[in-house]
Amino acid sequence: MKKYVLIGGSIATEGAIEGILSVTKNADITVICGEKRPLYSRPLISYALEKKTTDDKIYFHGEDYYEKKGVKTVYAEASAIDPVKQVVLAEGIAYPYDELLVATGSKPFVPPIKGLDGVTKKHTFYTMDDMLALRADLEQGGKVLIVGAGLIGMKCAEGVKEYVDEVVIADMAPRPLPAATTPEAGAIVEERLSSIVDFRLSAALDHFDGNKAVFGSGEEVEFDVLVLALGVRPQVALLKEIGAEVNRGIVVNEKMQTSLPHIYAAGDVVESYEAVGENKRLLQLFPSAYLGGKTAGRNMAGEESVFLTDIPMNATVLFGVRITSAGLFVGEKTEVTLGEDYRALYTEGGRINGFILIGDSARAGILTDFIRKKRPIGDMDKKELLAGRDLSIYPAEERKAALGGKYEI
Amino acid sequence: MKRIYVREEWCLGCRLCEYECAYANSGIGNIVLALKDKEIDPNVKVQTDGKITFAVSCRHCDEPLCISACISGALSKDETGAVTVDRSKCVGCGSCVMVCPYGAVRITKEGTANKCQLCMNNTFGEPLCVKKCPNGAIVFEEK
Fold first, then answer.
1. Same domain, yes or no: A126 and A178
2. Which residues contact A91 (CB under 8 A, 6 or more apart)?
3. CA A39 to CA A191: how far, in whole Å?
4. What confidence score (pLDDT) does residue A111 get?
């Protein structure tokens, strides 16, 4: 029986298990999980903190699910991949493989900051253990400073507000969600949320003086609990050490193969081929991790499978404000404001590059499909596309075939 | 698997499917009590391209993008191949809405995702939109 070893504890590994088992039931699968818990959905930690879901609902499946499928789980850190095709754990135990998946994800990036050692309650926010440690501190109340107003920092803030009243969010950027929004959309988010959280924007952190942050401008913020949400970095060490091709993330082809034989990679750790800008970059998105993992799994089990069209996308709700986006915010901009809702479409050469919607996102997936498939928009009215997209915007023959069951869009 | 298919050339645009769907999923045993004076939010929606009308509901795709994007595990495929939603798990992020190329998943006013589940989750056990379509424009069959 072919031996599969999968390193990683979240959705890419889950996708790979599904991929392998969709090809063969005759598989010896071992999952090596550095986190001491079954495979779970990392984006759910903010929802668990916020009590929008419960701690037990973060797992993809119940514990017996994997056993029933014959999947073994080892709760330990992988320390090396050796040349005789085995994964070695810190304690020296080795797991030989025929095919290996590296889905080691990311680690929060913590730059050296003067005085950080002197901060008593400090956290990052990436794993379930991070969330539990933060929650324990929050239950004692106090004032919270979050450094980093990206998606992780902002979702964390939403959870934090369940426990404390005073939350300061600081970022070097001039607006919240600098990477996931446009200046216009970011300004709307800032305006809607500024009565809930205390933003300190265009604020470069200089150092800590005990439980006090000092910014470049000289401004000082005192806090009881600190969260650093300054982005994440792919955990590429295992593969880098054995000479795999690595840029900012692990380099893989469309089958999710690394440059080394019988070794695949998927999830936050890889560079994706981004189909709008047509370049390789870190996307680090949940659907990409799942689909990449599934593609890897199928190829590992011997069925040819490719993962071609990956694009940036995000859907979230922050303090009741729904933000949905896909693609790139480049090209000609068309904006529509409908009551409380703001929508912008970015087009170029008769195609949609991207969109961002604040508020109602109904049927947004149709626009996403246009981006992903590079569908021509012809003479369609761009404001109409933002206002009332439905199946009528697809070519009539294609729509008829899709509804009639002869084809999937 | 058996799926709902639309024969759009037969659709009258009467929207009876929308009302039957809302009734089927209301949990109320009488169509008048279920729908009278209520705004409906059905899992099937009649759309038009200006020339022809067609009823749109979940296609229960072989490779559903909604499931690939679902961060909460609320969306999954059951043993028959139908894409189902466990609304108690849904956190309402709208990732499914962001990726469904049919626009067939939505976030309801309760803040969680909902979609066609082929009436397998209600007392009817067969799609009521199909059963009640007066012109045979919606069918439930294996293809």
1. yes
2. A76
3. 37
4. 95
Chain B residues 58-87 with CB within 8 Å of chain A: 59, 61-63, 65, 68-69, 71-73
How many residues make up chain B in this entry? Answer: 143
Instruction: Please tell me the predicted confidence (pLDDT) of residue B125.
Output: 86
* Residue A230 confidence class, pLDDT cut points 50, 70, 90: very high
State the ipTM, two decimals. 0.97
A 10 A CB-CB count for A396 gives: 14
Q: Which SS3 state, helix, strand or coil, does residue B113 take?
A: strand
* A47·B99 Cβ contact <8 A: no
* CB proximity B109 to A under 8 Å: no
Q: For residue A303, is pLDDT > 80?
A: yes
Q: Could you tell me if A263 and A243 are in contact, meaning their C-beta atoms sit under 8 angstroms apart?
A: no
- By the CB < 8 Å criterion, does A47 face chain B? yes
Average pLDDT over every residue of B11-30:
96
- A265 plus A204 within the same structural domain: no
A167-197: per-residue pLDDT in tens? Answer: 999 999 999 999 999 999 999 999 999 999 9
Identify whether residues A24 and A93 lie together within a single domain: yes
CB proximity B34 to A under 8 Å: no
Specify whether A224 is located in the same domain as A120: yes
B1-57+120-143: CATH topology:
Alpha-Beta Plaits (3.30.70)
Q: Compute the distance between CA of residue B68 and CA of residue B16 in angstroms, rounded to an integer.
A: 32
Q: Tell me the C-alpha to C-alpha distance, in Å, between residue A193 and each of A322, A325, B45.
A: 12, 19, 34
**DSSP per-residue string spanning A94-150:** EEE-SEEEE---EEE-----BTGGG-SSEE--SSHHHHHHHHHHHTT---EEEE--S
Question: Contact A367/A355 with Cβ under 8 angstroms?
Answer: yes
